[in-house]
Design brief:
Largest sheet: 4 strands, antiparallel
Number of strands: 4
Oligomer: single chain
Order of helices and strands: EEEHE
Structural class: mainly beta
Radius of gyration: 12 Å
Strand order of the largest sheet: 3-2-1-4
Distance between the termini: 31 Å
Length: about 80
């Protein structure tokens, strides 16, 4: 069986990120607790054993990543290559 994550390893756990991390690239892994699409911006509450982190997908920041976020659903596993 091949490893679909390759060399990717999480850099942080949920609830570990703060204002100092804005603009840095991070890798989070967990389960989607909730997804909300507000007509453009998509919000995902990502849950791991440490807590919950809200991930925001904005088409003005990254159209390619925002497009991929349309496929995310509840209990979906692994969000990768997002910026804090």
């Amino acid at each position: 069986m091949s490893d679909k994550l390759g060399d990717m390893r999480k850099t942080h756990t949920c609830c570990e990120l703060g204002a100092d991390d804005v603009g840095t690239e991070v890798v989070l892994m967990g389960w989607v607790q909730r997804r909300r699409d507000h007509g453009g911006v998509i919000f995902v509450d990502l849950r791991d054993r440490e807590g919950i982190t809200q991930v925001v997908f904005n088409p003005e920041v990254s159209p390619k990543v925002h497009e991929k976020a349309h496929a995310i659903r509840g209990e979906y596993v692994s969000i990768k290559d997002c910026k804090a």
